[in-house]
Design brief:
0% strand; MmpA_put; 1 helix; transmembrane helix; mainly alpha; rod-shaped; single chain
């Protein structure tokens, strides 16, 4: 007996947008963490 499967949907425009937004958020978080690390380094190395 054969089974009838619906074809897998291709990545629609909404999935592309979601992927772009997710990548943007990840990059923003990484940039924020790098900025915080830079501020901590600056304060730690500040001549007193």
């Amino acid at each position: 007996m054969t089974t009838h499967r619906a074809p897998k949907p291709v990545a629609g425009p909404t999935q592309t947008v979601e992927r772009a937004v997710t990548i943007g958020l990840v990059l923003a978080v990484l940039a924020g963490l790098a900025w915080i690390a830079g501020m901590i380094y600056t304060i730690a190395e500040w001549p007193m």
